[in-house]
Amino acid sequence: MSKSLKLYASVFGGIAVTLTLAVNMADRFVAEAPEDLRSLTPLELAAPTAPAGGLVAAAEAGEAPKDGPLGIGREALPEEIAAWNLDVSPNGTGLPPGSGSVEDGEMLFSENCASCHGEFAEGSGNWPKLAGGEDTLANKDPVKTVGSYWPHLSTAWDYVHRSMPFGNAQSLEPDEVYAIVAYILYSNFIVDEDFTLSNETFSEVVMPNAGGFIVDDRPETEYPQWTGEPCMTDCKDSVEITMRATVLDVTPDHGNDEAAAEPSVETPGEEVELASADTGTEAAGIATDAAAEPAPSPAAADPELIAAGEKVFKKCMSCHAVGDGARNKSGPELNGIVGRGIGSIEGFRYSKPFEEAHGAGETWTLERLHAFLEKPKEAMKGTKMSFPGLRKPEDIDAVIAYLSTFAE
Ligand code: HEC
Ligand code: HEC
Fold first, then answer.
1. CA 239 to ligand 2 center in whole angstroms
2. If the chain, 408 residues long, is cut into consecutive pieces of 10 residues, what is the mean pLDDT of each piece?
3. Smallest Cα–Cα separation from 404: which of 300, 311, 320?
4. Whose CA is nearest to atom 10 of ligand 1?
5. For residue 357, which ligand has an atom nearest its CA?
């Protein structure tokens, strides 16, 4: 057989298998409902229960299913719908009659739930905690439990009734669910040990986080703003460019810039000399012990170098501000940075290495600043400043000269 013929053969084989499956599936759905639905649990009801013999008979007879809109299936029986329709509303609608005490709940919880959720509903290993976590919702790592987070008791009742114990869902009687939920409430200090939860006492319980959710009112408050005619011309009085994407340094800048860098790499000696001539005390500081140097006065710096530094600072501006009224952005404001304490801006959340340096009373000497701006991640391991560093030493000198003109 040629290669292509073999291919056809397998395609036809595949179609045959698919067709057979389709016929089988169709029959499965027209199978008669079992006689006594009342004796089945909802889960049994959900599973296809038609006897295999029925399938074969229907397929052999070649009957076309016709009940449903697509020619398959049948309408769900009221009993089947009732078995799934067990949701409980926040006001208690849908609760079956029944009751259970904290005391009974403790036993039942211990038998059915504690292996995963802990004896006191405090959780075990990685299984969910059902109790505790008060006042943690505003934390970075909130502990969301039935007690700390769930606004409605109906959610707890419904959840336990519908889906727990994990792996053996819907095996509990309503009275058992009432007792277990009462125990979960008790574990969260929401009810006393002598409390009995029932369909009647249900609405007495107020969950601690009942007021913690808001109703989504955006259809009334926000959508109208977006449904009017959009403005397409002259929509703003004046347009101002406040920032350019290039300052983030995400696009490699080939061209003039790169060419200019070339000679400085080849003549490092000259470079250093130039830098020291330009920056006076600053460059000297870099070469010698910077800590001993006083912060350079703005007047001593070279205006050209400062101007060059202002340009370099465009790479920093998306995260840092300087000057009058400078505020923290995603990075701290940098006024008076030379000689300033490392990580010393109050109210700014620094990374750990910065906090440690601050704790040790370390300051931004010219030397440290230079090293940091060249390779931030190496100079301060663990810094959250996501900036790759300045490649050219003269850029670093320039930006430091520029920054030096802003007093603290
Ligand atoms: C075999 C382990 C296991 C057992 C036993 C078990 N659960 Fe769970 N329970 C889980 C898991 C897993 C989840 C999370 C399910 C998910 O997120 O889909 C959970 C979730 C829950 C939640 C919701 C927690 C939340 O904050 O989202 C409640 C309430 C709960 N279980 C109650 C119970 C009760 C009551 C019992 C005993 C009748 C029980 N569980 C038995 C494993 C278990
Ligand atoms: C993407 C944002 C971002 C860019 C771009 C950026 N920085 Fe930063 N910078 C930060 C963050 C965040 C910190 C705080 C570091 C930490 O806590 O680890 C920081 C810290 C600093 C510090 C220390 C401040 C202090 O209070 O201790 C200096 C100095 C600094 N940056 C200078 C610069 C310079 C100069 C540039 C441009 C060449 C620049 N940064 C570019 C985000 C940025």
1. 29
2. 44 42 40 45 46 41 57 87 89 94 96 94 92 93 95 96 93 96 96 95 94 90 83 85 68 54 41 39 40 48 90 93 92 95 94 94 94 94 92 94 92
3. 300
4. 166
5. 2
